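Input structure tokens:
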């Protein structure tokens, strides 16, 4: 007799299927971790870009803007940068959204000390303000994100004196 029996063939196919499913699950977890890491890095980049816009005195419709802000959306899944025309460190009607970023599936903001912050250009010093603030607070403003599937979290803290952004990841 030559060849394989039906049972040997079925066992071989089951083993190949098991190995393939383990690889797919591993790749899916890797993909979720990469999406989370990319979301954190993009948020950090947008914070820095907002600061640079303020320091450079970037124009909105050829008019200098007193403040440049980053604010969380209402659905925990997005944030946007904007030109704060009236300088109150809040997004109001008539102000221009510069860019909106939507977080990937399974990544969202969780309770944070602020809903965003602003950068104000000043010839003597660079200010960072919490929403509704008057630029007098000294300390850190922190935004928190979580990735539900991989049970990871991250905090991005903005130091109001230096304007530096620090990033920390943690397990949930």
């Amino acid at each position: 007799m030559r060849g394989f029996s039906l049972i040997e063939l079925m066992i071989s196919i089951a083993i190949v299927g098991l190995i393939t499913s383990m690889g797919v699950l591993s790749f899916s977890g890797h993909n979720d971790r990469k999406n989370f890491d990319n979301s954190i890095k993009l948020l950090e980049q947008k914070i820095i870009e907002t600061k640079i816009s303020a320091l450079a005195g970037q124009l909105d419709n050829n008019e200098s803007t007193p403040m440049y802000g980053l604010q969380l959306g209402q659905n925990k899944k997005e944030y946007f940068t904007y030109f704060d025309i009236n300088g109150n460190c809040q997004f109001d009607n008539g102000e221009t959204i510069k860019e909106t970023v939507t977080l990937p599936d399974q990544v969202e903001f969780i309770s944070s000390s602020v809903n965003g912050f602003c950068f104000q250009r000043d010839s003597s010093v660079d200010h960072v303000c919490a929403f509704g603030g008057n630029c007098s607070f000294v300390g850190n403003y922190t935004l928190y994100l979580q990735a539900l599937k991989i049970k990871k979290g991250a905090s991005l803290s903005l130091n109001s004196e230096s304007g530096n952004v620090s990033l920390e990841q943690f397990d949930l």
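The mean pLDDT is 82. The two ends are 58 Å apart (CA to CA).
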